[in-house]
Amino acid sequence: MEEERKLQIDAHPQIWAVGGGKGGVGKSVISVLLAFWLTRMGKRTILIDLDLGGANIHTLMGIKSPPKTLNDFVTRRLDSLEEVCIETDVENLRLICGASDILTLSNPHVAHKIKIINHVSKLDADYVVLDLGAGTSFNVLDFFLAAEKKIVVMTPQPTAIQNAYSFVRNVVYRRISRLASQQPPLQAMIKSAMDENNELRVRTIRDLLQAVEDIRGNEVMETLRGEIEAIRPTVITNMVTNNNDKNAGRVIQLVSEKYLMVHPRNLDSVAYDKQINQMVSSMVPITTLGQSSDAFANLYDITMKLL
Ligand SMILES: Nc1ncnc2c1ncn2[C@@H]1O[C@H](COP(=O)(O)OP(=O)(O)O)[C@@H](O)[C@H]1O
Ligand SMILES: [Mg+2]
């Protein structure tokens, strides 16, 4: 019994983060439906709206004005993240609403970010799904890197593909620059490599690793390479209307492997479904999408694969 209790206390939720540079590609819709399917597989799930600039998960869930939000936690009106959770109409799904009213939160202090990450890892749930905001601020990248499953959402549009690539690139640079934070010379190299016109003539992560090997030695390079390979993002192409669209994931995979040394996996796609648009416009919870929806079925498959 004692052992069993210890096991329970030590247990912490598995975190899935949903990011991708561009706004409007469906990060929030996908976060909600992944969380929904997790609950249908018997997992106690908490969905957190971390889009601190444009929180809208509650709207997608048909909740007009959230009784409490992440802001109550950041401003210490409520002491624990657990207290900020609200129940939803979906069994086993709780929600932490974002703080869209406080724009300054889109760039919270480092201390707030660390506090949020710490509390997330202690939440009483099997799974936590983080819906991240657009852009590649350090906050977004750090929440993304903190997750076990790192999901990048894009659409088949060329601009969205470019944004997704640049998102992954920023994730990689953020990861290695954090690793190098205790080593100023390495840190300086990485910083300079981020500038396209750097003197080292480093254009890609591959070039950077070569430069690191030349200047800092093989061991340092191998460590960085291992850390980069461990990132393994999952790419989802959303709003797909034809078979050709599905190749978008392949493009990201090829360029990420070639230039970033990152190996994205699960190149899945989610169909465009006009019902989703209609539901969002009329504030009908998208968790009530019917079995007839291809997008709904696609997300069931993706959830199964991620599990
Ligand atoms: N698979 C889809 N099919 C049809 N419309 C979609 C789909 N996914 C998202 N949308 C539409 O795109 C809009 C933006 O999605 P959202 O999840 O809010 O994007 P993001 O969080 O990336 O900014 C939604 O309001 C919805 O109407
Ligand atoms: Mg969103």
Number of domains: 2
What is the CATH architecture descriptor of the largest domain? 3-Layer(aba) Sandwich
Which stretches are low in confidence, meaning pLDDT under 50 for 5 or more residues running? none
Structural class of the secondary elements? alpha/beta
Q: Could you name the CATH homologous superfamily of the largest domain? A: P-loop containing nucleotide triphosphate hydrolases
Strand content: 5-15%
The portion of residues assigned to helices is: 40-55%
Question: Would you kindly provide a brief summary of this structure?
Answer:
This protein is α/β, with parallel strands linked by helices and 307 residues long. Strands 3-4-2-5-1-6-7-8 form an 8-stranded mixed beta sheet, with helices on both faces. The site of adenosine-5'-diphosphate has 17 residues, from helix 2, strand 7 and helix 13.
How would you describe this structure in keywords?
2 domains; eight-stranded mixed sheet; alpha/beta; 14 helices; Rossmann fold; single chain; binds adenosine-5'-diphosphate; 14% strand; 307 residues; binds magnesium ion
